[in-house]
Target: Arginine ABC transporter ATP-binding protein
Amino acid sequence: MSAAAHDVSTDAVQETLRPVIEVQNLRKVYGGVPALDGVDLQVRPGEVVAVLGPSGSGKSTLVRCIDQLEEIDGGAVFLDGELLGYEQTPGGLRPLSERGRRDQRRLMSMVFQQFNLFPHWTVLRNVMEAPVQVHGLSRDQARQKAVQLLERVGLAEKVLAYPRHLSGGQQQRVAIARAVAVDPRVLLFDEPTSALDPELIGEVLQTIKDLAAGNRTMIVVTHELEFAREVADRCVFMADGRLIEDRPPEEFFTDPRSERLQAFLPRSHGGSGQERS
Ligand SMILES: Nc1ncnc2c1ncn2[C@@H]1O[C@H](COP(=O)(O)OP(=O)(O)OP(=O)(O)O)[C@@H](O)[C@H]1O
Ligand SMILES: [Mg+2]
Model:
């Protein structure tokens, strides 16, 4: 093998190994109380990481800090090796300008519990607007892409409907199509099914599963244990603002190490079920 060919393969390997998201010793404090207390997390390209834990353990705060919706109080978050929210100056680190942050935030998409669609826009426009406004696609390109994505989430017939005419599950699938439309480096989900009636949860989970199969890098905060077990490459468990287990799903569910996780998992998932009852 020539030296040049060797270099190329090494670069390719490095690229595969480098985390898309790296969280280092992240700290976030609300009114003197830590919501995140030294969290470390790495998410590699194509990985799906499920974040589980009791209410108030810091799951939303974690994804919101990654998406720069919250100021952080310590530690750092990197996207493709680039520090988020700060820039290096001769005098040290300085908070990035709003514009700089916006540029970084374009590389991520978050899907919220409440779908946050624009009510006065059609489904199509909800999905195509960010690619046009933020990413500079032509309206034709964006429309074509939006229609394809809406077909993929099973909503081909709804492109010209308004959000109020859709079920919650359909609205959330639009929100997912919208998040994907900007080709983000990472997709963040914060309990995407917890505002839905039980009979609508399955269709949204299936949509997320399909995305996962398409090699997307994703962090999914969820209470859906079956889903996490089936879809995630790694499950992480948070309690009291700390990330206390980070394991492949089979180990996570069948051999929980910490007492907190054992208590959190129901008996049917290998836990003691004490914290849920
Ligand atoms: N904007 C805020 N102001 C003050 N405290 C906050 C704020 N957001 C979160 N917290 C606190 O931070 C802690 C972590 O909250 P967070 O919303 O991250 O928990 P969670 O794990 O997402 O819980 P849930 O499962 O209920 O969504 C909680 O104690 C919460 O009360
Ligand atoms: Mg939350």
Q: What stands out?
A: The longest strand covers residues 33-43. The pocket of adenosine-5'-triphosphate (ligand 1) is lined by residues 30, 35, 53, 55-61 (CB under 6 Å). Residues 114-183 form one domain. Residues 19 and 44 are 4 Å apart (CA to CA).
